[in-house]
Amino acid sequence: GTCKNAFGNGHELVFIKGGEFIMGSSKPSYPHDAEEPQRPVKVSDFYIDAHEVSNRHFKEFITATDYVTDSERFNWSFVFESMLSEKLNDQIDKSVQAAPWWVPVPGATWEHPEGPLTSIHPDRLDHPVVHVSWTDAVSYCTWRALRLPTEAEWEYAARGGKQKRLYPWGNLLLPKGKHRMNVWQGDLPNNHYYCGIAKGGRRNLVCNNTQEDGYKYTAPVKSLGPQNAYGLYHMSGNVWEWVSDYWGTKHSTKLQVNPKGPKSNSNNERVKKGGSFLCNAKFCKRYRVASRSFNTEDSSTSNLGFRCAKSSEPTERTEPREPKDSESLRD
């Protein structure tokens, strides 16, 4: 089942017995995301972190290596507007034109998530690290003698031994009325995050997250309980997670064994999986296990993190974790 890595500092790596599964979706929410076609994929045995990398664990890496993240080098990162104080919001007049709720904030970093006057200390040490680029994620995993999971490994692990299900636990968004992931609840009347009045090209009233799952933004990495029979937390929701693959939109329908994605991408775009606390049924329904999106590998935001993985050595003798699932397959 689980093992602690060589650092002995509480990282939980879960052993995943390899196998064949159907990757992707025949009913994508967004056709341009290229979830189609559904296709057979086979992965070898591997390990994956039980939860997203936390601020506490990322801080250990920074302390040990003096690594400087991309957002620290650039001295800014994208923050979701409603996370900012009114004062800071008023000082910033830029935003992403296609998604004006994303604001470039000077000094926003993994340790100061909403700018220099905010901090992960002491309340967010066990929340997922954010404002980390793909390059930062690779550097951290390498430090732990690990790597990022491939998109195929990530999706195989997220499915938890089930085939063709929407979520890690099954098909119901709220099985037995219970919230299983940290996503956005509440009405989005305009089908985006703004319900208010235009202000200098942006809008200053953000639709309200009713927090029925208990969290407004990020949640601790081991909150809400494991989402599937492999004991993995927050594969859906909480924060997007980088995987190793370059972004691509063409998939073979022939059986692929340990696919690693395209060999290159002209814009250096990498795949991210799992959706985040900002996903909602009316906007960004990307919390399904087949969902996928991308960012350039040097970009960072307040809802994007990662977890690490490791190939299983052929000489290792590890008892596989068999799915222990008491839930109905109809969930």
Structure notes:
By secondary structure, the chain is α+β, with helices and mostly antiparallel strands. The protein is 12% helix and 18% strand. The protein contains 5 helices and 15 strands. It has helices at 55-65, 70-74, 86-91, 134-143, 151-159; strands at residues 2-4, 12-16, 19-23, 39-43, 46-49, 76-80, 102-106, 198-199, 202-203, 240-246, 256-257, 269-273, 293-296, 304-305, 309-311. The protein has a 4-stranded antiparallel beta sheet, covered by helices on one side. Strands 13-12-10-14 form a 4-stranded mixed beta sheet. A 3-stranded mixed beta sheet has the order 3-4-11, with helices on one face. Strand 1 and strand 2 (12-16) form a beta hairpin. The longest helix has 11 residues, at 55-65. The two termini are 24 Å apart. Residues 2-8 and 315-331 have low confidence and may be disordered.
Portion in beta strands: 15-25%
* Mean pLDDT reading: 87
The tally of strands reads 15
| Low-confidence runs of at least 5 consecutive residues | 2-8, 315-331
Shape: globular
Number of helices: 5
How far do the termini sit from each other?
A: 24 Å
**In which range does the helix fraction lie?**
10-25%
| Series of secondary-structure elements, N-terminal to C-terminal | EEEEEHHEHEHHEEEEEEEE
Give the strand line-up of the largest sheet: 1-2-5-15
Q: Helix- and strand-based class?
A: alpha+beta
The major β-sheet equals:
4 strands, antiparallel
- Evaluate the radius of gyration: 19 Å
